[in-house]
Amino acid sequence: MISQGYEANMTQENGSHQQNGIRRPEMENMNVRKPRAMFVNLKNRMHLPGVNQLIAPCTSHLTASQLKRMLSAWQLMDRYHVFGLIQDGRVIGVVSIEEKIPGEGRILLIAVLPQQQRRGLGRRMVLESFCTLGLQQLTAETLPDMAVFYRKLRFTVGTPRISASGAAIYLCSLSRKELYDAYQHEYSAGAVLFCQGDEERLYVLVTELSGNTGLPKGHVEMGETNEQTTLREIFEETGIKAVIVPGFSGEIVYPQGKGMLKHFAYFLASFQKDQEIRSGPDVTAHILPYEQALRKLSFADVRSILREAELFLNTRL
After folding, report:
1. Which helix (H) or strand (E) segment is 5 a member of?
2. What pairing do the DSSP bridges indicate for beta strands 201-208 and 283-289?
3. Per CATH, the architecture of 7-181 is what?
4. Distance of CA 61 to the CA centre of its chain
5. Is residue 285 within 8 Å of 206, Cβ to Cβ?
6. Do residues 173 and 205 touch, judged by C-beta distance below 8 A?
């Protein structure tokens, strides 16, 4: 399937990441104070406003029954992923990716609402999807006008083949190495911090001045290992002297602006329950049981890290 949609109008994008989405909301213009669109998983949200408007022009060649089967497959089959951007309660962009082989994705559809084009949203969805899925390789088959778009994202664009209809079809591909080589990188480290309470396991979260709640973390300073950063940040943000629990690790990577990839390495850290928790200068610390902690976390990708840590603790310790 040739990736299609409103792609032709996105070739001049000026690129520029979610509270109930996958990444973080940021202010596009601090004077306007309007948050940027949230990047979210749409797999079980295909009913949201804007989705049909985005998909319709890309699937006009399908019959009603074919479209129904395609959408059903997207929702029910693990190899299909659907992500999008939501702003003011409406989906303004959507991308669908097929992952037949783990780590190798293929773009099936990408579309941005006409009034939202030329803002870097197509670029953002492609890069966020690549990082969220942890892909090693991403490909797309596209027409000449969108080949320009993919070149700007550092895809390798191959020699075109001629389709039965006479159209030139370009195979575009992007490896993780090519992506990483094209960007600067910023590194942070943190931990799922827990103790065993009298009746249940308790987790420590921190709420930042922005109102977002996450796990204790911070920038890796020169000369530090990720583990050293983690223990330092835990102490600075919570007053806790913790120890790293071996055998668990997690990573979140997402694009920040036009030329930066942010990396967050997460570990598992424990502490004795008799330690007093105190909030740091820029955060408020909380200690909560698992279900409450899961609900309080602001971001879906961080909730996934907590789920993995809880499973690890339940099955391996």
Report:
1. none
2. antiparallel
3. 3-Layer(aba) Sandwich (3.40)
4. 31
5. yes
6. no
For the record, the structure tokens of 33 come out as 């104070």
Per-residue pLDDT at 14: 33
pLDDT grade for 289, boundaries at 50, 70 and 90: very high
Q: How many residues appear in the chain?
A: 317
Structure tokens at 164: 């039965």
Give per-residue pLDDT as tens, 42-85.
Answer: 999 999 999 999 999 989 889 999 999 999 999 999 999 999 99
| Cα distance between residue 73 and residue 99, in whole Å | 13
Q: Band of the pLDDT at 15, cuts 50, 70, 90? A: very low
Classify domain 184-316 at the CATH superfamily level. Answer: Nucleoside Triphosphate Pyrophosphohydrolase (3.90.79.10)
Q: Cα separations (Å) of 237 from 135, 179, 187, 285, 293?
A: 33, 33, 18, 7, 17
Q: Is the dihedral of CA 294, 305, 278, 198 positive or negative?
A: positive
Q: List the beta strands (DSSP E) in the chain.
A: 38-41, 80-87, 90-101, 104-112, 137-142, 156-157, 161-162, 168-175, 184-196, 201-208, 213-214, 217-219, 243-256, 260-270, 283-289
- Between CA 5 and CA 154 the distance in angstroms is 20
Domains 7-181 and 184-316 share a fold: no
| Domain chopping of the chain, boundaries | 7-181, 184-316
Neighbours of 85 (CB within 10 A): 29
Residue reference for tokens 């799922």? 192
Is residue 277's pLDDT more than 70? yes
Do β-strands 137-142 and 156-157 pair in parallel, antiparallel, or remain unpaired? unpaired
CA nearest 277: which of 203, 189, 223, 176?
Answer: 203
